[in-house]
Amino acid sequence: MAKPVIMFVKKVVNNVIRGAMKKTPVLLEHVWFVSPRRSRFSSWYQDTVTAQDWFVEAASAQEMLAVQPKWKGNKKVTYSGVSVLSKAKLLMCRPPEIHQRHPASRKAIVCTRHYRPLKYPGAQSVLFSLNFMLTHFGIWRNGKKMEHLSATVALLGNRVFDNINYYHFWADVIADVWYIKNNLPRSEWPDYYLVPFAELAWQWEVLWQCGVREEQVIPYAKYDVLFVEKVVIPIRDKGAANLPPWLSRAIHDMSGWSPRSGGNGRLVFVSRADASRRRLVNEDRLRERLRQEGFEVHALTGLSIKEQQHLFSSASIICAPHGASLTNLVWCCPGTVVIDFLSERHLVPCFKELAEQNQVIYYPYVCRAAAEDEGGINDDMVLLDGQIESVVEVVSRHVGTSGHALDIRKG
Question: Ranges for the Glycosyltransferase 61 catalytic domain (predicted)?
Fold first, then answer.
């Protein structure tokens, strides 16, 4: 009789402990974390951009494949706008080794002057923040290695640890500058920009093209802890699963790009053979078939931003394995055809949505993963023979007898 009672008591105690552990992060969040909309040290500027009418009739509406991918999605932010926090402390965190693609990869935890982290959509999680702050207790509590900056600093990006990704640099970093300038009065515009940065040549070229001066750039990895007079935090949808409806417009405005009408008829295949992940293992077969249809083959490594802009704006059809290079479809003319090869385990809709914003005709081809143990974002892919023939058929539908692509929407 005693044994069942003991087992029952143990079960009750375990359930109580588990319940308390589940509630601990929630309690911590309420007690320790603070909302940027409620902190007495923060000024809140409501998003006035996203509510505008950004509807663009999707060019791909009539030109979709019979089978559509089951797109991955994240919850959209519950509120959006810009927070300006006075006398803020920023703790720069290194990623776990498995997520570190570059030695300078960092994310920021934003705290008030009293070391209360800000909790907002897209901020670091409660447990991540707590673990980091406990690990670096000596630094943040005693002010060791803390740099002081009496200026207004914008925290750009801060969505992913990847500081060498072309897509995230445009979509999360550069678009943040546009978002800040379209939501803040000029008097609150930042003096400096904290940038997830690897000091790559193309990153400097993007910043220069978008009007960000070299002396305004502070790489995330420059400081462990930074105390600033004011920090500007753009809070909005970021990443690859949820795009704001104005993203294409922001990139065009920042780069001074004016969309052209009609490409020059070039047929372009963008190779990822020199990439470390998401390659087509039978790319050579696809490449040979596309060459027979008049395609040029390009790898974008080493091309300047202007050369990439020229390549995509002069193309009428573009085929490419899914990767950051397809960010360049923002330079495409309306009616351009883009064929995107995606891994079955990494179905993110970023280029689908970007294509719609640019009135680009978008064909997603879901490819089988080449191996079982890579994990979606790293998967190499296999394009089946039937898919290769389907691609050729799609190309043929859009190419006239002259060899130039036709806009079949008009017919």
Answer: 166-339
